[in-house]
Design the sequence.
């Protein structure tokens, strides 16, 4: 039994982590912090956890608790102030914010608007996409859990980039459910505004852009350009990213499929399917990838539940690898289907 | 051509008023106030009005504008401070807040939590439900525009109350779209919270309760009890209120239908139909009423678009009567249907 | 390890059963029938099961398979033709249709429009609501799994009926997600029709009415009247039933709460809470009950996921009791929360 | 007063036509056909029209009615059999199906799967997008009303194509509300399937592809390639198409904006705006176009109500031009806004 904690337990990703960890067979969720809820029982703030989690929020994680790993589920900029002390105490870290995702501190500064405060751990961090970086994750001590959109796009795009069949230029047209935007009410997330609409936002300026670019660079072996257009759709959970790439060689639809099948055929959570479906994966850590070839263009779809494979489920998958547990432990169930 | 103004033009009911008035054949919408948007063009704040309304928000309505009537679309408690000056200037008023709805100032104090500040105009105000109080509205100078839930319930309930066939005890199970709650973001209206749920709120304490009670008393001729349970459903526009009453005499389903048909058969905007439908009325000033008799209980449905017949459309209908215009002017179009 | 099968595996309740059973620790799902899909792999028809279920649909359940229990997830009228042979082979049965729910064959004929064809097993059948009939279910061989609306209403209503505090007259205003209507496309379930609407249907004639009545009779100890008005709301999963009862004795809100707390305080899956929430239970076998007292009326809310606690999850819970397994086995996880 | 008729009056576009025409100041809607509803009052089949339309469906349009124009709102393949007789009778035609959209009969055969049966009228037909082909429409006798997706894409794409600033290669990522798929229930439109999902379909094979291609060819002056990926989103009305084009010259974001402003600055129904919004245009004949430049890529958004500017509203706009009425007659109202 390993002991873990969560810093920032009241947001949607923190709450989803506790949902998954409270029934994980090898994990004791021993501590959760929350500034505004310190002292309060977790299951009072999140009644759906009643009967599953009998701890209270604390102000801080204490050294004395003997934690093996801590999830940091705070806003960007906060995590990098928390991680050094955790590492000094020998605790492994999975950070769900953007703080450790971009390897280049200048990129971080450009996209997040402030300097990075923990270059040391940044240089050691591993990007937490198990299907692509599994071996590195097994030895990692700081893992940067990928963004939800980024996961959907990178899973869809990287196999073709690796193959050399396509140019290193990708258009990612992302459609996300509203839970991806977090629990703070705002005009854009107000039901009368978004409940019967599709709303583009942060066009060309969304922070998942450099994450996708970093992955494309790596797999394409050259400098890439990613045009990322996120759009809010009126569903609670789920992302479908439609990724457009141009073939630079003659390749049939079957050639393209073969590449994906080879990449994901043996994976537990990522599946190359004919009809990628949000309903098939929602509530689970599964992701669907699909593709169609139209003339010289491939459109590849990446589909997942933004709170599970797009956030907390993937974080648990990373944790399993880091702690030497079975990779699928606590996550091995099908999506809702309907 | 009559000139009108709106105090509080940025909220959903103010914005909906301007949508209806900007194409009204007999009305010039000459002034709109907004504290936070004073000086800004209305069509910049509400881009869907571009080409239809070429005025800017002002801080206050000025006497000099020669307005015939002003709509007050402010929060409860504000209207009763604005109305006396308008009346002193000889301007007629339709108040869309709750300030002039309850005839008894003690009831007002009980439900709104503060004393009423304008007893004079309160005593002169007319409850703005044209299908039930048409003749009074023609001579009215201050009209209290009914609440959205209240309109749906009173239309469904009052014919049977008048008939004496049912007890003066009503259960109103209301289901409302989210635009009824206004434009301010909140947890309950946050899409991830309400987008795939049905949420009861203010059970037994919603301020439309005494409005419905007042109407039931009037038509039943005795003191009534109304149990009102409002529930949020994930649609943007629309209310369906299911109203349960007990028959106190033997009456067939046809007897009940005959009462409704007699009441609404000649109405332009209220229709007694077999299958009341939100989609049939949405976007329009039409309302549907339906009924079914189950044993000794009648369930009567009241259906409308909460922003039109439940708020701004009804306010325009009242205005038409007050200004001697045709009652349906500017409102006479069918609902969206789909 | 017990072996079970499903007759009628392609509908929503059959598919949901396989979702739950494929990860049940004590169960092998060994057989599923489907007339139109016989011979096809289950995970081809329901791709979300890929990796979890490696069987194919068959035309019929064969005796040779040594099944301990079979779920019948066929339309009403079919089940009663399948059950006798299963019982003859010594196989226990959980029927998810309405065929074994009404103890009185005359009631069955009245509400379902044809005679009952299996009076023998009907007389032995137990109504599968574990929180109310647990001890009987442990020895049952034929279980009638309750309807989704009925479960939500009976959980909310029965404690008060037992207490004698309320009259045996209940109004049940039910709001259901669309998956409750099954997988066959129809006008009412067509997204443009129901996607932005609330639609009453089968008012006073829905077949869950006599189920609720039967339970109320049993707990009230007298003949009851249930007025049941089902309404479709645009969510995929979830039911909220608002149940109205009249107090016949002086009782405070606290008195009422105490009754519910006593009834459900020790239950694993049914919780009496202040704010019943569809999102808290969706995807899980949990149900919420809440209540508010308004004057002399109690409104009690019953909330659940119609496909889990309202259908397949409850069926698995019954199976666990019938086979001597732990009651919560395979079901013990929190709802999605968000 | 002009007299018009509708062939195929029961589908969504036929019903929407009647909604618009029944309050059109210069039009008498004198005839509507429907095979399955012949003899029935239109307002019985479409109750939202009660009080607005007092005619009954007929089997056929009769010559004797003296119609000036007929809308054909039948499935593809039917229209081309109806049009010749109408033209022989001297009646002008707006066809809402795809039969007269593709100028090249070989293209028609390729995409629709059968030969074109009315080459004569095909050669005379005008593509009914008033903002781009206004002068031709004034003299037209047969108008091919554009597809909903096609309208949204062509409005967004054509100004840049004309400018020569971009390559004649476009990716159109379309998101459509469900009413675009028509009134026939199907698995994909079944609420439990699509109500909480985003569903790609007909990728690369949707029949609006050659329509968009035809327009791009025309404005680019060269042979184009259009990759069109339609996706269903869970809203009833509304389309947002995100169109990706590559700049082939140095051009700033302002240069791009200037092109759109010049194209649409004087238009009544098409507006170039900073934040294109489905809610702003829904229920109206207005469309929004927006654009953002990301590196060397322009993403242009086309937004409209698929049943109004994407179908029946645009058809009425064409009719106005064909009959010498004011172009905006009967259509000149703002969208719902909320």
Sequence:
């Amino acid at each position: 039994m390993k002991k873990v904690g969560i810093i920032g337990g009241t947001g949607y990703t923190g709450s989803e982590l506790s949902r998954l960890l409270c029934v994980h067979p090898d994990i004791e969720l021993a501590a959760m912090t929350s500034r505004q809820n310190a002292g309060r029982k977790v299951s009072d703030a999140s009644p759906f956890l009643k009967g599953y989690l009998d701890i209270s929020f604390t102000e801080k994680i204490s050294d004395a608790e003997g934690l093996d790993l801590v999830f940091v589920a705070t806003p960007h900029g906060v995590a990098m102030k928390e991680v050094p002390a955790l590492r000094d105490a020998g605790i492994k870290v999975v950070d769900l914010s953007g703080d450790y995702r971009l390897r280049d501190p200048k990129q971080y500064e450009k996209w997040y608007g402030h300097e990075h405060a923990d270059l040391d751990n940044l240089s050691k961090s591993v990007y937490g996409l198990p299907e692509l970086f599994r071996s590195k994750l097994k030895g990692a001590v700081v893992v940067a859990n990928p963004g939800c959109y980024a996961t959907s796009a990178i899973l869809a795009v990287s196999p073709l980039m690796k193959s050399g069949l396509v140019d290193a230029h990708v258009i990612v047209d992302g459609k996300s459910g509203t839970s991806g935007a977090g629990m703070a009410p705002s005009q854009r997330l107000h039901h009368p505004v978004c409940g019967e609409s599709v709303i583009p936002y942060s066009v060309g300026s969304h922070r998942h852009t450099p994450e996708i670019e970093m992955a494309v660079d790596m797999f394409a072996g050259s400098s890439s350009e990613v045009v990322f257009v996120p759009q809010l759709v009126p569903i609670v959970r789920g992302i479908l990213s439609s990724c457009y790439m141009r073939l630079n060689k003659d390749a049939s639809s079957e050639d393209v499929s073969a590449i994906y099948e080879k990449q994901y055929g043996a994976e537990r959570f990522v599946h190359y399917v004919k009809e990628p479906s949000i309903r098939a994966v929602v509530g689970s850590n599964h992701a669907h990838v699909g593709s169609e070839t139209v003339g010289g263009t491939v459109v590849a779809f990446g589909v997942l539940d933004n709170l599970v494979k797009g956030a907390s489920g993937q974080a648990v998958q990373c944790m399993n690898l880091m702690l030497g547990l079975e990779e699928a432990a606590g996550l091995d169930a099908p999506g809702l289907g309907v």
User: Anything to note?
Assistant: The two ends of chain C are 34 Å apart (CA to CA). The mean pLDDT of chain C is 97.
